[in-house]
Amino acid sequence: MLTSRILPLSLFGLSLLASSCGPGDPVVETFDDEATICVGTDTLGQSDGPLEPGDTVVVSAIFDQCISACARNVETSCDLETAAGGLRVSTSASFEHPPPGTSCTLECVVLSADCGEVTLDDGELLIHHGDDDYHYFAPGEGGRCALPEDAEEPRARQVLVDNPAAARPCLGEVRLPGFGEVEILPGEPFDLLLDLGLCLSSSCSEELQTQCTHTVDSDEIHVTVSGSYGDLTYLEEGSCTDDCGIHIADCGELTLPEGQYTLHYAGNTYPFELPDDDAGCL
Questions:
Q1: Residue 36 in contact with residue 109, Cβ under 8 Å?
Q2: Residue 24 has pLDDT above 70, yes or no
Q3: CA proximity to 9, closest of 206, 162, 208, 231
Q4: Band (107; pLDDT cuts 50, 70, 90)
Q5: Shared domain check, 119 and 58
Q6: Same domain, 137 and 7
């Protein structure tokens, strides 16, 4: 059974921006046995209270991928079967990425699936999932989402970044026009940057990785960006630091002759001209 939920945007410090998903050839991504396994919790990993031997509880999976609101044809599955010393859980999820250049809102759609029910006895419950072994204990403990027994840190859920509508293209430096001089001259190279508009907690976000590219067609410049970062807010809700850094994607260098240009990004257009003695973010 497929379950999805949109996390509150306040967790990411983001504002909801309306957008539309455009046409194009879909790219399908599939994840097998890449989920956190939960016993006796809801689909966000929250326990209803302590468990006792004889209790029948739901085993569920929360998938590591946190997908774009524009993802299509989303499917999840989770199966339980008896294995040596415990249970084996098999999970799978797939979805279609929005076409390149599509502007999408930055909601984090969390995917989960019910795997089935299990009755607890008075010993530990061992669950095999992929290459990992998970240990759950009764009685007296609440339901929980377990980590592999040899893991030292919580597993981060991957959040995809696909042409976020809140991003701002910047020429030369990430600086608003009027706040310091950023001069761009014809025939001289300058950096094309993208302020991603992400506000991420340093304690609950990790490894932001992006790939930003541009193409030039006469006086038209097209920019696209994709990437991901690790999100731990689902494990640390309420205890994340409130700091917010600027996150920049480097889209490469441009060298242009004197003239007027239009930069296209995520369905928006940004006119500029060279030379420009007060450049920065458009």
A1: no
A2: no
A3: 231
A4: low
A5: yes
A6: yes
Q: Are residues 176 and 258 in the same domain?
A: yes
More confident residue, 138 or 63: 63
C-beta of residue 251 within 8 angstroms of C-beta of residue 214: yes
Is residue 279 situated within a structural domain?
Answer: no
- pLDDT of 6 reads 33
CA proximity to 157, closest of 224, 61, 249: 61
Q: Write the burial class of residue 141 (CB in 10 Å: 0-12 exposed, 13-18 middle, 19+ buried).
A: middle
Whether residue 202 sits in one domain with residue 86: no
Domain final position from 87, 120, 155: 155
Q: What is the DSSP string of 151-214?
A: -SSPPPEEEEEESBTT-EEEESSS--TTSS---B-TTS-EEEEEE------TTTEEEEEEEEEE
DSSP string, the chain: -EEEEEPPGGGTT-------------EEEEEES-EEEEESB-TTS-B-SB--TT-EEEEEEEEEEEE-TT-EEEEEEEEEEEETTEEEEEEEEEEEEPPTT--B----EEEEEEEEEEE--SS-EEEEETTEEEEE--SSPBPEE---TT-SSPPPEEEEEESBTT-EEEESSS--TTSS---B-TTS-EEEEEE------TTTEEEEEEEEEEEEETTEEEEEEEEEEEE-HHHHTT-S-------EEEEEEE---SEEEEEEETTEEEEEEESBSS-SB-
Q: What is the CA radius of gyration of the chain?
A: 23
Give residue 264's domain range: 161-274
Distance of alpha carbon 185 from alpha carbon 200, whole angstroms: 34
pTM flag (> 0.90)? no
Inter-residue contact 281 to 174 (CB < 8 Å): yes
More confident residue, 156 or 53: 53
